[in-house]
Amino acid sequence: SDKYECALDLMRRLPPQNVEENLSKLLDIVDADLGDDLLSAIDQPLKVRRCKQTGKDYLACDYNRDGDSYRSPWSNEYDPELPDGATPNATLRKLEVQANEAFDTYREMYYEGGVSSVYTFEIEDKFAVVVLIKKVGEGARRMKGAWDSIHVFEVQERGRNAHYKLTSTVMLYMITNKPELGHFNLSGSLTRQAEQDCPVDDQSAHVINIGRMVEDMEIKMRNSLQEVYFGKTKDIVNDLRSAGSIKEGKEQADIQKELVGKLMLRGNSQ
Amino acid sequence: MTEFSVDEKVHIAASFLLESPPGEVNDVFNDIRTLIGDDDALQAGILTSLEDHNTEQLITVALPESETEVIISKFGQLEGGRFADPRSKQSFAFDHMRLVRYTTWNRSGNMPYPTLRYMHLDFAYKWCIFRAAIDNEVQAYVSDHYPHGVTTVHGSGSKVTIVIVDNKYNPSNYWYVLFFVRVRSITSQWNGRWRAVWEVEKGGSQLKGSAKVQVHYYEEGNVQLNSTKDFELDISSEQDEKKAATSIVKAIEKAEKEYQMAINENYTELSENTFKELRRALPYTRNKVDWHKIFNYKVGNSIVNK
């Protein structure tokens, strides 16, 4: 567990630009068991695959992987073929189908493109729902971007209610190459969590509850990403170097302070 | 699955050190140390990586008998692992290993500063008027544009190399020990570093340089900026050392300022265009999604169509 924490800490420090390469190196230095835990704990950019049976795109990650094969949420088949590959039970598969349809629309409305996939699987007395979305930008104006959403739900049904535990990670990559700028790479991910109890009255409830939680979470995270990427990191860059003269800046600040002081005195004496 | 030997694992782990974000090499080292679990092998295999890290990342050192800090870089490397500080006319031996701590029970939690094992005060480094003239101009420039900047100017033959670095570590990033429990302050976690290296020949008309900016933000996530740019500027060829120094530093200031402006403009463009194109703030309906509608329409239709 100590090693596990250190591995996670390490991945939080190494450049997200190289997450796949670094994860691969990390797996080389830890034992197989820890390696498996890390593979499911550390998020990597999602890969797009084409479903052989339906011709639709889907996203590949550790949650729809069995060995070296990946399961398509559209056909429920593995590629490369795996006759005994793990699939969700009938109830969960039905939920999976509904969720994929619903999120397909959600994705179109917010992302106007991209690929989405939803996977379900049992965990003892609960079940998990994983909602994935990937959008890659056009690359206009020499600026490339990619957004990967990974929402992992743990759902516990309790009578006519359900308890939803959500852990969400959004990976955002932004790369610009321009002569006056050189090579600019702003990449990484943010993770947030949420928990909620919702009623489960009918068939549609899980999809709708999960849908709402994902939507609210993505709205929150989109704001956080904006603040951190284009606010905080930019502030730090401008803290490292001052475009204007520091001396002149200080002189102006001193003059302003003096003025404010004089105004306040005048205000007090009137 | 191929099983790697301890030495091979150390080699892999050492490559992680090179990618440590500004001010976090100690943290990365501690992680690697736990993962490898073999201190002897680690110590043996890690030295070269630490040396590379320090010279590449322009680690700074405070020398006694000198008012300003000096930068550790390959430009100031001397025989036998020693480094030169042309400004104070000293050379010193630097223990790269000191950058990382072996004991976890250390009270002072601040970002580990490289310490010197010993130091010689003999004058072992050649200096020239050109280098000194540039050094004066660059120092004034750096103190006026880099709030925590350090600069070292090296001269070798007729070539002068200007090295500049500015670090900002989040001040509340402390490790401290409380009753044998390692506790970390979790307020706002980020670090940044700006590096610039410029090269010019005495009497030359070309100024070559490169700038590297890194920022690491890791509060509930891991976001890193890596921005690099190479420069090739034409400058007027001057024989008089003082005039040359002034014109060189002016050119550097102009180029670095334009680079900083370009970075800021790019931030604005990314935020207003590229980011929006990835995901809208709201659908075109200007309202959040109606999930009941989606379920009834989309899902209902699929069931019917099947």
From TrEMBL, chain A:
Q: Which GO terms describe its molecular function?
A: actin filament binding
**PROSITE patterns in the record, alphabetically?**
F_ACTIN_CAPPING_BETA
List UniProt keywords, sorted A-Z.
Actin capping, Actin-binding, Cytoplasm, Cytoskeleton
**Cellular component, GO, one term:** F-actin capping protein complex
Q: What is its main location?
A: cytoplasm
Under the heading Pfam families, the entry gives:
F_actin_cap_B
- Subcellular localization: Cytoplasm, Cytoskeleton
SUPFAM superfamilies, alphabetically?
A: Subunits of heterodimeric actin filament capping protein Capz
Concerning InterPro entries, the annotation shows: CapZ_alpha/beta (IPR037282), CapZ_alpha/beta_2 (IPR042276), CAPZB (IPR001698), CAPZB_N (IPR043175), F-actin_capping_bsu_CS (IPR019771)
Superkingdom as given in the UniProt entry = Eukaryota
Q: How does it assemble?
A: Heterodimer of an alpha and a beta subunit.
Which family is this sequence assigned to?
Belongs to the F-actin-capping protein beta subunit family.
Q: What is this protein called?
A: F-actin-capping protein subunit beta
Protein's organism? Umbelopsis vinacea
Automatic annotation (TrEMBL), chain B:
Q: What is this protein called?
A: F-actin-capping protein subunit alpha
- The domain of life is Eukaryota
Say if the entry is tagged with keyword Lipid biosynthesis.
no
Q: Which GO terms describe its cellular component?
A: cortical cytoskeleton; F-actin capping protein complex
Q: How does it assemble?
A: Heterodimer of an alpha and a beta subunit.
One example GO MF annotation = actin filament binding
Q: Which InterPro entries match?
A: CapZ_alpha, CapZ_alpha/beta, CapZ_alpha/beta_2, CapZ_alpha_1, F-actin_cap_asu_CS
Keyword entries, A-Z: Actin capping, Actin-binding
Please list the GO biological process terms of this entry. actin cytoskeleton organization; barbed-end actin filament capping
* One Pfam entry name: F-actin_cap_A
Q: Which family does it belong to?
A: Belongs to the F-actin-capping protein alpha subunit family.
**Taxonomic classification:** Eukaryota, Fungi, Fungi incertae sedis, Mucoromycota, Mucoromycotina
Q: Which residues form a coiled coil?
A: none
What does the record give as the function of this protein? Answer: F-actin-capping proteins bind in a Ca(2+)-independent manner to the fast growing ends of actin filaments (barbed end) thereby blocking the exchange of subunits at these ends. Unlike other capping proteins (such as gelsolin and severin), these proteins do not sever actin filaments.
